[in-house]
Design a protein that fits this description.
Blueprint (H helix, E strand, L loop, with lengths): L6 E7 H6 L5 E2 L11 H15 L7 E10 L8 E5 L1 H18 L4 H11 E2 L2 E5 L1 E2 L2 H11 L11 H12 L5 H8 L2 E8 L5 H10 L6 H10 L4 H19 L3 H13 L10 H9 L5 H22 L7 H11 L6 H12 L5 H21 L7 H10 L1 H11 L3 H10 L5 H8 L8 E5 L22 H10 L6 E5 H7 L4 H10 L3 H6 L7 H18 L14 E2 L17 E6 L2 E3 L4 H15 L1 H11 L3 E2 L8 E5 L2 E4 L4 H15 L5 E5 L1 H5 L1
Parallel strand pairs: 2-4, 2-7, 3-8
Antiparallel strand pairs: 1-8, 3-4, 5-6, 9-10, 11-17, 12-13, 12-17, 14-16, 15-16
Helix pairs in contact: 2-6, 2-7, 3-4, 3-6, 9-12, 10-13, 11-12, 11-15, 11-17, 13-15, 14-16, 15-16, 17-18, 19-25, 22-23, 26-28, 27-28
């Protein structure tokens, strides 16, 4: 067997590898910037704590680190090709640990310093990032930040580690760090660094969220236990959800957490699953998996309502599917309660009707329907009265619906017209435009005046109302072809033959125009409002307010735009705060005065963001003589902290954000 001559791969202890005097590393100029956020740092720290608590034989594998020898490079012995993000984050954690213990545990501090600092040069770090941001990195790791110096992602993540790693936990963190292992791949001069990098990172399809969940659930079990869980639980889940298995897990997590689960970014669903379900023992896993399997069965019914035996529930589930699958978290919850006799069939159908009313009314008035279902799941968990209030708050009023139906295009026209006419299933029918959207010159509404003889204003008025409720009706497919584009008098015979009462009634009219459309709209609107009702509980008509628990940090802003929020509604007060940073400061300052006990509990559990001293360089705000609020977090962390504190204080339901115009479109 031949031996590789230009690639050397060795399994090594990560800390020993970094501590070696021979290990000095530079990041090449073509590498991307450092991108890990606090969420990634939190996962790394969790893994380190977990492995620290295992027996001495247990290790944690962090992947492969690819580097190349380069005798011509004056800065380092190794050029880091793959692994920059992990190594940089480890260095920031070790720096935070070093700065925490350097005054109290000199022996440990010396070991940590060997990982961080180049031998013989205490002013240089073992890792040298890209020249553009090397100075920022070294100023953080070597604790020589200057006042007013530019802040960076290095500062954010270092501050997170400083806030989480305390002196009394230092031995545990150091023990976990020493159990990290990786495969060190070193390339010789004749090896192609680019080709190997692409082989490591681009070959094959990346694992999807549900595949990661599958691996996570089975990892650590014996082969026989894995096979048992696979056959008894996972395969039935796959069979019932099919190609929608990824959506199933997302919807299940929204239902159980009452929080939106991001699909953008790196494995948001998998991260949420790991957070919600720390790896259990086999007995606990079986209990949880039986619940997952039951919800997968329910999800299969929602995907195919024809499998539901009760005809009334089956019809309502089909109606809900008109609006897509976004409502499934709420529907699954209600359906399972009905299955277990916790709610009646009437209560289930009433919930399904309210879902339809909510989504249809919002579509009619043109307000968005995203980020609604998680808040309804939270409300449902609090009881039927809270769910009713939540529906009422975000369902547009009858007055807004009346105005919109007069002038706006009718959404989901086949569904709406079918229910107005009492059809259980509108299959076999088409939506008929009495006035065509684009009439030909010989079209006529009364058989006397041709379209070409209408004034420009008359033509514009007819076109504007062509897709509104009053100008639409249902007609059998067999009759639709005969009337397509015809003048109204020519259509009346076909209308008369229709089995749809509303359509056959049109045959009794002599003419059709804007006045007839308006009159018919008014009559149908009354029927619309009686079918798709709004709960008569509160006068609040939510117009784009987002509950704080559903708020998200928007991506980067266009040049010249600085407002993320138009305003924030805090327990009836209207706050003029432009972005997350201002909101973070104001919420924590208010918590300091109004809900101190809850704030201190939140702060203790999360290791911040309030501290007894300015323990590291960065942006701080002083609350009193002995307490300081750190303001240097990244915006995603700040939003999570705001949500967490308000939830801890029991105030989250009373806080809403109104995004600015640019905030909504970003």
């Amino acid at each position: 067997m031949s031996t590789a001559t230009n690639v050397e791969a060795t399994a090594v202890s990560t800390i020993e590898w970094l501590s070696s005097p021979a290990t000095t590393i530079v990041v090449p100029v073509y590498q991307r910037q450092y991108r890990w956020d606090i969420g990634g740092c939190e996962k790394l720290l969790t893994d380190i704590r977990s492995v620290a608590d295992e027996d001495d034989a247990h290790r944690h594998f962090i992947g492969s680190i690819l580097s190349a020898e380069d005798d011509a490079h004056a800065e380092a012995d190794l050029i880091l090709i793959d692994g920059q993000q992990r190594i940089t984050t480890l260095m920031l954690l070790i720096a935070a640990l070093h700065h925490t213990v350097r005054e109290t545990e000199p022996a440990l501090a010396a070991e940590l310093e060997r990982v961080l600092v180049r031998p013989g040069d205490s002013g240089r770090t073992k890792l040298r990032p890209h020249e553009a941001w090397a100075g920022l990195f070294e100023s953080v790791v070597l604790d020589r930040r200057a006042p007013g110096q530019q802040e960076s992602r290095f500062d954010d993540n270092y501050a997170f580690f400083r806030s989480q790693v305390h002196a009394d936990e230092a031995p545990r963190i150091w023990r976990g760090l020493q159990k990290l292992e990786h495969v060190a791949i070193t390339l010789g001069a004749a090896a192609s660094a680019q080709q190997i990098f692409e082989s490591l990172n681009s070959t094959g399809e990346p694992l999807r969220d549900h595949e990661l969940i599958h691996n996570y659930v089975l990892m650590g079990l014996s082969h026989s236990e894995q096979q048992q869980v696979e056959d008894e639980f996972w395969l039935p889940i796959e069979r019932r959800t099919g190609q929608a298995i990824g959506a199933f897990w997302r919807h299940y997590l929204i239902m159980t957490t009452g929080r939106e689960v991001a699909v953008a970014g790196e494995h948001g669903v998998y991260s949420a699953f790991r957070h919600e379900f720390p790896r259990p023992d086999l007995e606990t896993l079986r209990a949880q998996a039986s619940v997952w399997r039951e919800y997968a069965e329910i999800y299969g019914v929602l995907l195919d309502p024809a499998t539901e035996p009760d005809p009334e529930i089956r019809r309502q589930l089909a109606y809900v599917n008109t609006f897509g699958r976004a409502t499934y978290p709420l529907v699954m919850s209600a359906y399972r309660d009905h299955r277990h006799s916790l709610i009646t069939k009437y209560e289930l159908i009433r919930t399904l009707e309210r879902i339809q009313s909510l989504l249809l009314r919002r579509a009619v008035v043109g307000v968005p329907t995203d980020r609604l279902i998680a808040r309804l799941c939270r409300a449902r968990a609090e009881g039927p009265d809270e769910l009713l209030k939540a529906f009422a708050r975000i369902t547009p009023s009858d007055e807004r619906i009346r105005v919109a139906l007069k002038f706006a295009d009718l959404p989901h026209a086949l569904y709406v017209l079918g229910r107005l006419e009492g059809l259980a299933d509108p299959e076999g029918y088409d939506v008929e435009y009495v006035v065509p959207p684009a009439p030909h010159n010989n079209w006529s509404g009364d058989g006397v005046r041709l379209w070409s003889e209408y004034t420009e204003d008359e033509q514009n008025s007819h076109r504007a109302l062509a897709s509104t409720l009053g100008n639409l009706t249902l007609i059998e497919e067999s009759l639709a072809e005969r009337v397509f584009g015809d003048s109204f008098p020519s259509k009346r015979e076909a209308y008369r033959r229709s089995r749809i009462p509303g359509t056959s009634a049109l045959a009794e009219l002599d003419a059709w125009g804007t006045a007839a459309i308006s009159q018919r709209t008014a009559a149908l609107t009354d029927a619309f409002l009686s079918i798709w009702r709004r709960p008569a509980v509160t006068e609040i008509d939510d117009d784009g307010l987002t509950p704080i628990l559903d708020a998200v940090r928007r991506r980067g802003w266009p040049a010249g735009w600085e407002r993320e929020f138009e305003y924030v509604e805090y327990r009836g007060e209207r706050w003029d705060v432009p972005d997350v940073k201002y909101l973070f400061n104001r919420v924590f300052r208010r918590g300091w005065t109004d809900t101190r006990e809850a704030l201190e509990a939140f702060n203790a559990r999360n290791g911040g963001p309030i501290y007894a001293e300015k323990a590291w360089n960065g942006a701080w705000d002083q609350l009193d003589e002995g307490h300081f609020l750190y303001m240097g977090w990244d915006s995603k962390y700040m939003m999570s902290a705001v949500q967490g504190l308000l939830e801890e204080s029991g105030l989250a339901a009373e806080v809403f954000v109104k995004y600015s115009y640019i905030g909504n479109v970003m």
